[in-house]
Amino acid sequence: MAGPLPLGDPAPSDGRLPADLPVDTRVPFSAYLHIPFCTVRCGYCDFNTYTSTELRGAKQEDYASTLISEIALAHRVLGEAGALRPMDTVFFGGGTPTLLPAGDLARMLEAATTAFGLAEGAEVTVEANPDTVTPAVARTLADAGVTRMSVGMQSAVPHVLAALDRTHRPENVRTAVAAAKDAGLAVSVDLIYGAPGESLADWEASLEAALALEPDHISAYALIIEDGTKLARQIRRGEVPTPDDDLQADMYEVADARLAAGGFDWYEVSNWARTPAQRSRHNLAYWRGSDWWGFGPGAHSHMAGLRWWNVKHPAAYAQRLAASESPAAGTERPDAESRTLERILLLSRIREGIAIDEVPLENRKRVAGLIADGLVDPASAIQGRIQLTLRGRLLADAVVRELTD
């Protein structure tokens, strides 16, 4: 289970948005549907997920109907606020969305589409564990309107998968990707590097295996040790080594070079796509600060600068909705300084970067130093934008500190 929810102001029990919220319906709108179920909890995972023994008071078979109740609430709330608009992107994340029957995912998508509509050419993504994808599942999802599947590959090396507590077999990644492609879905594969015991050769083998699948998109994330996870406890007890920052940097550079040679172009620090059209539009909506409603326990939402988050446990979530109450646990409206910090943090990570004039005036003089240090592309800076070099991507957090401190 994830850590505690953030502190914030109490959320209204009816979910109503503030009357003075400056909603702009020209801003793209997305939906995130959280499926909080997993067969086994991976040792590194800090997401709000639950195995069957942790559910107490909630049933997986009831989940689709419960989430559809929140969709009805969102339709009412957004309608009252004049904020209804079609969804540009939809993302089923988790957890393991494909632990639920594909028909349940289809029902939730149908309910959301009925409530809000889908923009023309909308992107609809389902995350999937390789062991849960069959041709029948992929066809059902495609027939329901899903356009894209994100397959949790993580690694092609068995001992690395074991270190991450991943239970799928490497060969099942191939069959899952083939099923998705045969159903007409675009495919992304997710990788993690820097696991305990993973060598540079192991990582290169995973990259080659991912490229051999010929996906449209590849994500590669450095392993982060989150407090409260099994892996954090193992490291604290000295049972496994702490990830090596220098090795992770080498792995990133190898990934960027190999993926570029394989026809992939980076568009965010941890994401590569074959073409701009194959980038994850849903994730770009987050990074660009669009509006979204997060459905499900622990899900976060954003609307015109207002943020709120749902209660964490599926049982508490279901109880709120059964009582015709909003499942929101708290809300906040960050001040201008906080919004500026967040915008720099997010936009600096994507290829297009951020306009220099969006950086606080007193920090703009630091851009020259970032160029001198090889962190920011000089040609882009001349054009008025801050765009990270390869070295800058490796030190993205340091760049943000320079631009915001």
From TrEMBL:
Stored PROSITE patterns: RADICAL_SAM
- Write the record's keywords in alphabetical order, separated by commas: 4Fe-4S, Chaperone, Cytoplasm, Heme, Iron, Iron-sulfur, Metal-binding, S-adenosyl-L-methionine
UniProt-listed CDD domains: Radical_SAM
* Listed InterPro entries: Aldolase_TIM, Coproporphyrinogen-III_oxidase, Elp3/MiaA/NifB-like_rSAM, HemW-like, rSAM, rSAM_sf
Protein's cellular compartments: Cytoplasm
Signal peptide feature range: none
Residue ranges of every copy of the Radical SAM core domain listed in the record: 23-265
Q: Does the keyword Iron-sulfur apply?
A: yes
Mind telling me which NCBIfam families this protein's record contains? hemN_rel
Summarize the protein's role.
Probably acts as a heme chaperone, transferring heme to an unknown acceptor. Binds one molecule of heme per monomer, possibly covalently. Binds 1 [4Fe-4S] cluster. The cluster is coordinated with 3 cysteines and an exchangeable S-adenosyl-L-methionine.
| Family indicated by similarity | Belongs to the anaerobic coproporphyrinogen-III oxidase family. HemW subfamily.
Query: By its UniProt entry, which PANTHER family does this protein fall under?
Result: COPROPORPHYRINIGEN III OXIDASE, RADICAL S-ADENOSYL METHIONINE DOMAIN-CONTAINING PROTEIN 1, MITOCHONDRIAL
Q: Under what name is this protein listed?
A: Heme chaperone HemW
* Lineage summary: Bacteria, Bacillati, Actinomycetota, Actinomycetes, Micrococcales
